[in-house]
Structure of Mediator of RNA polymerase II transcription subunit 14:
Amino acid sequence: MTARPPDPGQAVLPPPPPLPAEVVPGSAPALATDKPLAPGPASGPGVGLGPEPWFAFPIPSDADIEDELPPYFEEENVPLGQMLDRVVRKGYGDMRHLVTEVLPPLNPRQKPRHVIDYAKSTRQNVLKYLAILRWKAAVDTPASAAGPSGASQVGGANGASFPTPQTNGESNDTSPAAYVIAGKGKAKAMDSEDSKPVLRGKVTDTKRIQQFMEHQNRQHEEAIMHVKHAAKVVEGLRLRNPDLLTALSLLNLGTYPRLPSSLTEAFLPRTPLTNAAILDTLRRLNAHILYRLRCVDYLPPDLVVREIKDGRAYVSGAGPYGFRAELSLVGFGEGDEGRWWLTGVEWGWKSKEKGTDDPGGSGGANTKKFEGDERQQILDVANIEILPPRSVPEDRGDEIKGGAALVARRAVAGSRRGSVVLTPAETSSSRARTAEPEEHGQLKVDGPLVRLYNFLQHLSLSYQLEVLYSQALALAGGRRRGQLMVEIDRTKKVLRLKYWIRTRPQQAPQQSAAAVGKRQPSQAALGAPRPPLVGGILSVTLGEDLSPADHKTGLLAEIRDVGMVPSERELRLGLNVKWEIGEAGAGGGLKAGEVMDSTALRLDPNGLSIDDMITASTRIHAAHLTRSLAAPLLASPRIAIFPSSPPSLVESDSSARPVTLQVPLPSRTKSVSLLVGVSARAGLIEIEDEGAREGAASEERRMRVRMTMASVNEGRTRIADDVGRLMIAIVMDNLESQMRQLGWQPTRRLALRSQDLAKADLHPATSIFIPLPSSSLHYFVAKINPQGIAFELLKLARVQAESGIGTKLVVGDRTPMDLGKMRERRKGRVTKRRRVEEDRSDPSKTEKSQNQAGPAAHSQAVERLESRFEVDSRDLRNLYIFCNALVSQTIIEQQLKDRAIPYTLQYPPASGPGAPKSGSAVAGMVPTLAVNTIDLLKDPRAADVAMPRVYMQIQDWWKGGKCHVVTVVQLRHRPSVSEAGTSPAPAPGPRQSTAARAEGIDFDQASSVVKFSATDISRCVPAFLEQWERLSKVIVVAGEVSRLNKSDQFKDLRMLSFDLRTATFSYSPGFIASITYTPTSDSYLVTFTRTGSASGHSAMIAGVSPAAALTPRVALTPVTQMTPVAHMSGLTPAGMTPGMTPGSLVQTQESPHEVLAGLLSHRLNELVGTGRRKGTAGKEFILLLRSTLPLLLAIESIRAASTTDFPALVIRSVNQYRLIWDLDEKRYALDMTLLPGNESYLLSDGSEPVGGHVDPSCGALTRIPKFEGVVQSVWEGVRRDHIPLSEENEDIDAGGGGGGKKRKEKGKEAKVLAIKLDEGRSLGCEVGVVGSVLKAMSAGVEGVLGIGGNARAT
C-alpha cells in the first residue's frame, strides 16, 4: 500500500516529536544491536503478518538472543573476601570488648553466660558466611578465557557443583560455560586484549534477563506517552473555523447581540419600583399565595401554615419542635409560570444544655436560623431540585387498580392489628392511593409542598442525628471513655451506640486440621483482631414512622384536599430507637440479639440528649441484671446472717448502681453492709464493703473485694459462692481482729500438710488457730460454717513419718466447744447476781423478776439467732480460758493414765458453801482431780502419813495464761507444836523455809495441809512424787515425834516447829534438835541448840550446882596443842565423819550435842537406811540423844572445873568417848562406852580396851595405876551411897530416861545403878547416874595420877 495524500479540507496535523530509536517501526526495541533488520523474508523459520515487507520480521536464533542480552561483569558482584574480612573483624572486636570490658567486673557465676552468648553470635555469623559460600559454589561456574568450546568443561574439575535439596542429587548447572562477549554494552569500548570474561551461571543469567525486561518496560512506557500526545494533537485539529456571522456583527454593530442575559443583566440599568407598587405587589402576592394554598396546590396535612404576610407564607412541620420555613411564589401564573420559592428555614428543636449558637439551642425564640453559605446551600437544593414543578405520571390501568386493591386489603388488615404497614412500591400516597380518577372522582396533581415537607423533615432529623452523634463522641472520649463505642452510617442514616465494651476472651487453641478433617485457618485469620463484646446496642435510625395516624386528622385532611391526590407520597419520618442486647449484657432471661422495649428511650426534640438515653438504657439494663443476680442470693441461707435484718434490694438514683443488693455484715462498731450490684456505667458486677472504706487496716479487705469482683466478672466463679466466701472472709477478719485486741496471736496455718488440713476440714480461709499457753500441741480453733462460728479444741499428735525417718504432726483429738452454753452460763450468772442485789435491796422485786423470765429468755434466743456470726469478747475469752483449763486437765489426766492411777473428777456445787464465788462463766466448769493416796504414792506407808485422798487443783486458769497445778495433801498426824508457856520457845527462824517456798511447797500447820505447786503442768505428777519422796522423810520425822509424844516415856518430847524441810523438837528441857532433809544428798542433817533455861537443868543432869554451871567455860585443848610426845603419837579419833577433822578435840558449844552433829546425822541416816520396823529408828535416835546428854554435860562440867587443859575429850563414835590425861610424857585414857540399848555405860581403862581391840588413834596409852582401886572405890561409893543421890538425881531418872525408874528404896536402887565387870577393871552404870559416876571416876583417876590434889576426889 502507498500512503494517501492529505485531504485539503482537513487540518494538517503537526508533526509528532521524534520517537526514540527503540520504538522506530521495523526495529527490535528490546534488542541492543546495531545491525538493521532488512525487510524481507525471515532469516529463520517464522510466520509474517502479511506479504508487505514492513510486516515481515525476522525470527532471531538462539545466538542472536544471547547476543542481545546485556553483559554482566565480575566487578559488579560483591567479593566474598570482603564479607569474610568483615566477619573476622567483627568476631575479633566482640571478643576484645568481652575480655577487656565486660568480663572483668563480673563475678565467676555471671561470666559463663556472656562467653556463651559471644560464642553463639560468632558461630551464627560463620555459619551464614559458610552457607553463602556453598551456595555461590553451587550456582556459579568459574570463568575461563576459552571460547564456546569451554562449555565442554562443565561438570569437570573446574565445574564441580554441590547438590541442593531441589536437584535430588543431579547437577544444577544448566547454563553454558562462561565465555567472552566482545563488542556489546560495556565491552564495546574495551580492547579485545583487555576484555574481561563474563560470568556464566544461574545468578548471572537471571540478572541479565532482569535488566533486559526493565529496558523493555521503559520502551513500552515511552511509546504509550507518544501515543497520548498524538491523540491530543488530533483533538485540537478538529475545531471549526472562526464564525463569520460573529465577525460581521462586531464589524457592523460594535457588539454581539447573541450574548446570554445572565451576562448582560448585570450591566443594564432597571427602573426602580415605587412604594405603592411594592405594597400592591405584596398584597397581590399574598392573595395569590393564599389562593394557591387553598385551591391549586396540595398542602400536606402535617404542614401547618402559620401566617401569610409580606409576600411570604410562614409554615411549620414535623410537630411543635420540628422545622419552620418561609415560602414565596415566583410569578403569578400556574404550573410552569408560577412556582414556589423557599426563602428561609429554621429548626424548632434544641439540644439539651447547649447554647443559643448551637442547633436547637436555648435561645430566646428557641429556633435556629441558618445564615450565610449554610443557608444558601439549603435554599439552592430546595429551589433548584425540590420545588420546581414536575409532570404528573400517567395512570397505569389494571396495575394501578390491582395495587390499590392490595393496599386496601393491607390497610383493612392493619387496622384490625392497630397498625398499617405501607411500602413505597405498593402505594404512592399516604391517604387515597392511586386509583382510577374516573371511578373515584379524584385528581392527581403535582406536590411540590409535599416534596419540600419531606425534604425539610429529613434534613431536620439528619441534623438531629448529627447532634446526637457529636454528643456521643464527647461522651465516648470523656465520662464514658472505654465503655461506649460510637458508629454512624450516614448512607443508611443509622447511629449505633454500643455500651459496656469488653475485650473478647482469647479462643482456645483448636484441634489440628488433620484430626478433624477440616482446613486449618490461616495465620492471618488467627491473628486478626476480634470485635469486642458489648452489653447492648442502641440504634438511632432516621426512618419512616410506621405508627398509625390519627383518624381525626386524616378525616380533616380528606375534606380539605377536595379530591386531590398528590403525585408524591408524604413521609412521616422520625428518629426511631432500637435497643438490642449484646453478648456481654445477656443474662437474667435476656439473650444476645433480643430486642428490648424502647418506649422509655424516646428522644425529646425539646432537649436532645444522647446521655439521657444511654443513662436510661444502662440503668434499666443494670437494674434487670441486678434483680436476676440477686434472686439466688436472696434465697441462699449463706448470706442471711441476721434473720431480723435479711438482705434486701435497695433502689437509688445513683448513676453507679440503680439497684443494689444490701447484705448486712457483722460489725462491732457500726452498722455496715456488703453492697452488690451491676454497674450502669461498665455493666460489671460491683461489690463494695462499707466496713473497708476508711483506714489503712482495711486495705486487705478492699483488695479482697477487688479480687472477688475480678473473679466474678471474668466468669471464673459464681457470684453466690464468691459472695459467700467474701462474707466468710469478712467475718474471719473481724474475729481475728477481735482476738488480737484480746492479746492473742491467731494464725491461719499450722505445721501440717495441706492435705491433712483438708481432710480435717480445717481450711485456712475458714479457720483460725490460737496456740494455748498450757501446751504447744493444743490449739483453740474458730471455724466458720453456714450455721455460724464454731469453736473447738484441737490436739496435734506426733507420729512416725512415712519415710521412717523422724516424726510428723497429724490432727489428733478434737473437742467441740458449746458457745451457746457458755453464753447461757454467763447470762445466768449475771442474772443471778442482779437478783441477789435486788433481793438485798428490795425483796418485793423477786416475783416481778420471775414474771419477766419468759421475755428475757425469748430475747436471749433472738440474740443467739442474730449473733451467730458475732461473738462477744467475754464469751470468746471464756471459751479460750475454758479450753486452756481443759488442756491442763487433759495433761494431768494423761499423766495419771500413763501411771495407771485411777482418779475421779469433782466439780464444785452450783450453790452452797463450796460454790465458786467468781463471776466468771467458767467458774464451776474446771474440776478438781481426786486420787487415792495409796494409788498415787504407790507406798502403803503413805496411808499412815497422809489422808486417803489427794486433790489436784488447776490454778490461775482465770488469768488466761499458763496454768499450774496445786496438789493438796492433808497429813494424818498433826505435829504437836508446843504452845507458848507450856514448853521452851522454838528456835528462832521463819515458819517455812526459803527452800520450801522456792520449790512451791506450802504448809499450813493449823490444818496440817501441804500444797505442792507445779509450774510445769506437763510434769506435775512426777514432780509431786519427787517432792513427796523428799518431804515424806521430814514428814515421817514429824509424825514420829508426834507419836512418841503420846507415850509416857516421851511426854517431855515436844515438837517446836515444822516447815516441811526441817523438824525442830525438844528432846530434853532446854535442848533442841533440828532435823533437816537434804534432797541433793538424800540424807538428814541434825543441828542442836540450847536455850537459856537449860543451864540450871543441865547442871542438875551433870550432878553439879547451878552456880558452877554458870561459871565461864574453858575450851578443851585439842590434841595438836599437847606435848610433843603426845603429838608424835598421832592420835586420831575413831568413827569421825568427813565433816570432822581427825584428831580434833571437842570445844564447848552452845549445845553439848553440837560437837556430835555430824556423827549423829550419820547415825540417823544409818538408822533410816537399815529399813527397820516402823517407829524404831526415831525412838532409837531420840534415846541416843537422851543417853548421851548426861555424859556430855558431865564432861562439860569436869572441863569447866579443871584448871588445865586436861582431861581432854576424844570422841571415837556416837557411843564411845575417851578422856585423856598427859603426864610425864605418858598418856592415860578413860573410856566411856554406851552399851547397846542406850540404857547403860561401861567405864574402863583406855589402855585395856574391852574385847581386846586396841585403838591406835590416840597413840600409845599407859595403864592407869591402881585403876581397879578406883573402880572399886566408885562402885562401893555407889553401893554404900558414898555418892549421894539427891532429889536432882531422881529428876534425872525420871526425865533423862536411860531406862531407869524412880527409886523407892535406896538399897535396891544401888544394886541396879552400878556393877563391876572384867574382874574389877571396868564399871558398868545406868545412864541416869553416868554423870555422877564419871565425875567420881575422873576425880579418882586424877587422884591416882596426882593431878590437881584431892580436891575433886573429896
